[in-house]
Model the fold of this input.
Amino acid sequence: MMEHLYYDAAAMDLLRTTRNTLSNRTGSWRHMRPEFGLKAAACAAACPAGNPIARFMAAASDGRFEEALRELKKENPLPGVCGRVCPRPCEAACNRAEFDEAVGTRAVERLLGDMGAEFGLCLPATMGKTGKRVAVAGSGPAGLSCAYHLALSGHDATVFEAGGEPGGLLRFGIPAYRLPREALDRELGFIDALGINMKTGCRADAALAARLLDEFDAVVAATGALVSPGLGIEGEGLAGYFKGLEFLAAANAGEASGIGKSVIVIGGGNTAVDAARCALRLGAEDVTVMYRRGREDMPASDEEVAEAQEEGVKFVFHAAPAKLVGEGGRLRGVALMRMKPGEPDESGRRKPEPVAGSEREAHADAVIEAAGGRADNPFGRALEVDEWGATDNEKLFVCGDAAPGARTVASAIGGGKRAAIMADVFLRELDIKEVKRKVLVGGNGAASAAAHREGEAAPGADGSVVRFKNVNTAYFSRAARAAKLERLSPEARVAGFDEVSAVCGSAAETARAEASRCFRCGECDDCGNCLVFCPDMSIIGKAAAVGAAPGFDGDYCKGCGICARECPRGVIRMIEEER
Done:
């Protein structure tokens, strides 16, 4: 027989209270607490240039394109350049790739950079003048980035460039079909706008290097890795043998000649692929890139290789030149030998070894050596350079290809920024450990110059990075990628040096649609979910700073974690309460 449940009025009177529930401070029950704050998005932590991706995507998704460009320019003076030539590590790390498809960040960056034609340079405000003078040797992407951030920090920057115009590798090493000169020149308008003193026709030799160290308060070497090591084989003096960067400089200046019909390019990087594609445009009919390792070890970007193959460039792997063969002082061909993978070398890759008896001769009217360059150091001795660009000379800093790190334009921009920060730390006598602790995006990514100038911490400086598992995808809808590239036909490409690719559709509509796909990981957009779902109503006012997050009332938050679970963008995480 079922027992009857009945209402016990006396018992209920014991539970009933007329007091205000505020007296019951339920926060004392808590063993976990929410941590609110700006986190680093996975894409931003992977960006060598330190672009504030979530921030500029938020502005672009609302159609606030000028503001989006201003956000970009706080960290990167060359978004239109990076939007064309960067290998897109941000997209490889994009959390949305695990949901449907990675956000086309590079395309949005390119579109915003090109909007500079409408909105102008959109430069950040500069700090007060310090009276300190800094010399920068080299005006490639690293030197330009360094001078830019030095000028924003209030220092007087003077750049010494060997060529007749600023840009370094951007101007003479990257063909116009990848980087149109009008896009480069437009973004270099910051040189005059920020009062940077540009000295062209000044090669940084040992004499100039010594003078700079004597006359300036700090010096930054951004001289690149432009010294060709050569192939080290017989026949390099023959007519028809070219060094890669010299050939590209001549091709970009419209001065390349004598390339012939059959060309072999030695190397596996983007310089080798660019040289091969330029040779086709200069009239060569049979162009082969030869690399001593396999395709999987080739440092050239997949995109570059695919476009080259579409245009007719052939690739031969596990092969190397033994000697150049000539006749009457002119190149006739190359004696090739097959290579096989040996034991791993210092790079971790298996070192190529020649296969005995495999030598054969291949016809070539020209050979272009693009097997990599070594750093040009005019400062008289081998320098000990750390990952920040600091050296054992307290007033000398190094960035770009002359410093440790990947040899890409985006990495050079990030390296120039780090060197500028370190020079500023030296000139202002700041606490170097404290600065390093605060400016790294995600704790180990690129440095944020904006955070340094503003005296704030970079997103995720404590190491907090928002990964896909931290994103609440219930608040997002699947959407196909809006930013797509259209390319000229291979036949049209090789007919000249016109830009190969363009982003399809209206710039404004495409940028807005693609930016709207961004999860904006780690950035609070004041959606109010935490307030709505909090059972204790312990969420308190949002901070005034852009992208900042609310806080919580410790007296009543029980640490249930509902706010963290419902946050769409991983802004809130639960951590153990300190007792």
Summary: The chain has a mean pLDDT of 91. The CA atoms of residues 281 and 494 lie 5 Å apart.
